[in-house]
Amino acid sequence: MLGRGAARALGALRGVRGGAPPARSLGLSRRLLSFEKVLDKDHSLPKPCWGKDMRRLFDQFTKKCEDGSWIQLASYEQISAQRSQDFSAFIHAYFPSASEVINKEKLSQAQLFTRGFEDGMGFEYVMFYNKAEKRIVCVFQGGPHLQGMPGFFHGGATATIIDATVGMNAIVSGGIVMTANLNINFKSPIPLCSTVLINSQLDKIEGRKLFVSCKVQSIDGKILYTEATSLFIMLEPKKKKYDLKEAVLNPLPA
Ligand SMILES: CCCCCCCCCCCCCC(=O)SCCNC(=O)CCNC(=O)[C@H](O)C(C)(C)COP(=O)(O)OP(=O)(O)OC[C@H]1O[C@@H](n2cnc3c(N)ncnc32)[C@H](O)[C@@H]1OP(=O)(O)O
Question: What angle do CA 179, 184, 190 make, to 5 degrees?
Answer without folding.
Answer: 120
